From TrEMBL:
Swiss-Prot/TrEMBL keywords: Arsenical resistance
Organism: Amycolatopsis xylanica
Keyword Ribonucleoprotein in annotation: no
Example GO biological process: response to arsenic-containing substance
Domain Phosphotyrosine protein phosphatase I residues, every copy: 85-210
CDD domains xref list: LMWP_ArsC (cd16345)
Protein name: Protein-tyrosine-phosphatase
Amino acid sequence: MVNTTDGLPAREVALQLDRIVDELADKFHGVFGRETVEQYVRETYALLDEHASIKTHLATLTARFAQDRLTDLGKSQGLTHVTVPQVLFICVHNVGRSQMAAALLDHHAFGRVTVRSAGSQPSGRIPDEIVGALYELGVPLTSAFPKPLTDEVVRTADVVVTMGCGDACPVYPGKRYLDWDVADPTGKPIEAVRPIRDDIDRRVRHLLDELTD
């Protein structure tokens, strides 16, 4: 049964999810059947509903996250052609370090790298101080939201960067794992966030150089 925690009646949520399934089934035609698309859409909605602290616009977020998950599933199964390396950043809540790292790498990469982020225990919202610190560098973070760690995103990643999430990330052979000892910016004033941002930025630039040499 469809949950109503995004404030909409159950029937309206169901209709929105059906529309998302229709759109993604068209987008992934020839890669996945409609049943697979529907399974991932409904599972994605349930995951976001379970982990989200702010449960508004869940259907909209479901459309974006389900598309990323299906894209990664296709890559992991060799059903779609992969042309650039993919990097996954993981922290605990996916509102601080991993979001900053993903936004900075995406900003510098200009499409040369695919970027994902996730949380081992995603919750909360991205603090204004983090959004503001990135905005100072011309890096927008207005559409980002915390996402749970899923199997296909780890399978697809060429490099997995963990930042304070312990042993939550599954380990697969053939991948490069990095653990960055970076301070947590969450709850800090922007004056304290800036040096953390700059530390992450230096690490991201170095990683990008390694991946694109």
